[in-house]
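for the recovery benchmark. tokens below, seq after
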């Protein structure tokens, strides 16, 4: 930890920043605009209460430049603020339809505060319509007004922050594969099977009974994946060669490990009917080769699929389907996930460093607070 450091529990405002070119370098600094600065018309000042932190957030930092994640929350030259999902409260408002004390869920920075330019209000959501966000995916600029959300349960806020955005990705992949009749595959292979996104997807795929749902994971996480009960079968990465290469297979890749991807494509060849690139948990092994045997890898970008389904089904039908899928999943997660709250600067920095190095146990779901 360097730069300006505030004592834990103080009422000071600060941002957590990472060096864009060296994610191991991080610091806490005072925000450029103090939360007490006067609000302009339609501006809303939020106090960030808590947020989840998983490998997904590390991936956002790794791809901060290429996928524009650094653009959501401005930082000084060379530094970035990692986006996270969490809850915030309206501290002050100059928008006539946003009241102080209202609770919101959305895409936030790792900070104590955030200021929005509120617009496009509905009963269910508020958008940040500031000019800086104009070119960014609107999914990330929408803040849910939680009391109007049928999928919100006050006692399960932590599970919502940890899993709901990841489960949305899983829901969209499951829907995509169903639309494509799983490309004729009867073997559905998921890497980084212990990740929350893979577990969410395994839960959904298994319910469809389209094919055997097989998880690939590190030897250390094998038993955890088996215990989740979401997979038909789980193998350690080293056991990949034991899998029947004669069966038509779809690969859903959360690991983003270039060597593993090459192995899967080589092993299944033309029987690899679809190769879906979703994540990059093994971000240090990222070198992806071109011209691999079998179906070429295709990147799955959840916001694009979400937009498509919003157009096809309409926003409320989509939400209805999503909520129906989410509820039984939420009821099942107590069997494998342990929520671990952490508060204060030192704790947040430690969780960040552990996630960066892949030291977070898969059963742990961190909920962080800087306040
Ligand atoms: N494309 C999209 O739209 C989209 C949307 C949502 C999520 N994602 C991606 O899905 C991935 C999973 O995210 P998550 O939040 O679900 O992850 P998570 O639950 O935090 O995943 C933890 C697991 O990832 C692996 N891992 C994490 N860090 C590692 C490291 N440094 N080295 C090696 N393995 C590491 C380990 O799994 P194993 O031992 O099983 O490998 C670990 O148990 C992320 O890359 C995320 O960005 C993509």
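predicted aa per position
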């Amino acid at each position: 930890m360097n730069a300006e450091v505030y004592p834990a529990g103080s009422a000071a405002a600060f941002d957590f920043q990472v060096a864009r070119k060296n994610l191991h370098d991080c610091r806490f600094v005072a925000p450029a605009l103090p939360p007490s600065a006067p609000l302009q018309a339609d501006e809303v000042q939020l106090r960030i209460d808590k947020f989840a932190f998983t490998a997904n957030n590390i991936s956002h930092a790794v791809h901060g430049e290429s996928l524009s994640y650094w653009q959501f929350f401005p930082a000084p030259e060379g530094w970035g603020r990692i986006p996270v999902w969490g809850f915030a409260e309206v501290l002050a408002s100059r928008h006539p339809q946003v009241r102080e004390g209202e609770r919101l869920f959305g895409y936030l920075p790792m900070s104590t505060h955030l200021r929005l330019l509120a617009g496009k209000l509905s009963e269910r959501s508020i958008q940040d319509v500031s000019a800086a966000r104009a070119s960014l995916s609107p999914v990330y600029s929408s803040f849910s007004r939680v009391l109007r959300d049928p999928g919100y349960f006050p006692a399960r806020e932590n599970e919502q922050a940890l899993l709901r955005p990841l489960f949305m990705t899983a829901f969209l992949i499951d829907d995509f594969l169903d639309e494509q009749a799983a490309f004729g595959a009867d073997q559905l292979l998921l890497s980084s099977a212990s990740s929350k996104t893979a577990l969410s997807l395994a839960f959904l795929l298994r319910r469809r009974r389209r094919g055997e749902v097989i998880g690939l994971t590190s030897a250390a996480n094998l038993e955890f994946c088996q215990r989740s009960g979401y997979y038909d079968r789980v193998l350690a990465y080293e056991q990949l060669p034991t899998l029947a290469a004669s069966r038509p297979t779809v690969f859903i890749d959360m690991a983003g490990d270039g060597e593993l991807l090459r192995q899967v494509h080589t092993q299944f060849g033309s029987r690899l009917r679809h190769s879906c690139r979703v994540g990059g948990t093994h971000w240090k092994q990222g070198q992806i080769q071109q011209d691999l045997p079998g179906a070429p890898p295709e990147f799955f970008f959840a916001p694009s699929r979400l937009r498509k389904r919003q157009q096809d089904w309409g926003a409320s039908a989509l939400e209805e389907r999503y909520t129906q899928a989410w509820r039984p999943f939420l009821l099942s997660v107590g069997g494998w996930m342990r929520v671990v709250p952490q508060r204060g600067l030192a704790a947040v920095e430690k969780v960040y460093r552990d996630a960066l190095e892949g030291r977070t146990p898969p059963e742990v779901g961190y909920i962080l607070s800087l306040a």
